[in-house]
Amino acid sequence: MAKKKKAVDNELAESKQVSTVQAVIIWISLAVLSVLFLAPIFIVLINSFKSKLYISDEPFSLPSAKTFVGLLNYTDGAVKIGFFQSFGWSLFITVLSVGVIVLFTAMTAWVITRIKSKFTSMLYYLFVFAMIVPFQMVMFTMTFVANRLHLDNPIGIIFIYLGFGSGLSVFMFSGFVKSIPIAMEEAAMIDGCNPLQTFFSIVFPMLKPTAITIAILNAMWVWNDYLLPYLILGTERKTIPIAIQYLRGGYGSVDMGAMMAMLVLAIVPIIIFYLTCQKYIIKGVVAGAVKG
């Protein structure tokens, strides 16, 4: 008995050592990956405070007394590209597009999930199929149709974003709706709620984790998107990604200092939004992709 107990204790000790080693390896790997992912952002940040004359020669060095220019790159860049006007257009398009995507795809997913028919099944698979269609395949046709339907404006592009963002959003919402007990909706209808009241009073509040996840994913996509606004809006109403490109001068010249500063200002809002809501993203992804 003593030998068996000793053997069991040795096995437990060895397993704990293996677990500790694995935890250390995982921690080191994640730390290295974090550094690799954060390094480009850090490089952009430190170069945004340097004179453009030194950025190409000393891109990885910290600002020194010779290279430091304070906030000059930020003020010059903001004036050159009309940053605050572009920021307004980006904010307007992003907020409305994300709101429309979350609201309408949640309602669509609820109807598709609760109403069982061949039509709703076909509709669901069409949304799933839309996730794998590359934007480049349809962008010329989309631009032609958008021009004919007069959607080539800041309001019209919101509906275009709704079309492109609906595939993943409906897929995730549908997975979560399946986990909601239908008895709660039936109880609400017995109490006199119509379908809209049932959705907004019972279903939509329970979709909060998935809704926030979808909002984060779509906000990052719409805010950083360059190609679609460029094709639809042109150069008259520039969003931030389009405006930053105008820092490229003729013959390939680039004001690197101003560009670095504007890139910092462009990523700060979306980083703040992500950090504010990031605790919901894993919960929402798991709920939308696994449940049901």
Defining traits:
2 domains, globular, MetI-like fold, mainly alpha, single chain, 14 helices, 292 residues
Give a short overview.
By secondary structure, the chain is an all-alpha fold.
Helix content: over 70%
**CATH structural class of the largest domain:** Mainly Alpha
Number of DSSP strands? 0
Order of helices and strands: HHHHHHHHHHHHHH
Unreliable parts: 288-292
- Largest sheet entry: none
Arithmetic mean pLDDT: 83
Strand content: under 5%
Give the count of helical stretches. 14
- What gross morphology would you assign? globular
Enter the CATH topology name of the largest domain: MetI-like fold
Describe the fold and architecture.
This protein has helices at 2-47, 52-55, 72-81, 83-114, 118-130, 135-148, 156-177, 182-190, 195-206, 208-224, 227-233, 240-245, 256-277, 281-290. The model is unreliable at 288-292 (pLDDT under 50). Helix 5 (118-130) crosses helix 7 (156-177), helix 7 packs antiparallel against helix 10 (208-224) and helix 10 (208-224) packs across helix 14. The protein is built from 14 helices and no strands. It has 292 residues and is mostly helical. The protein has 2 domains: 2-47; 72-290, MetI-like (MetI-like fold), CATH 1.10.3720.
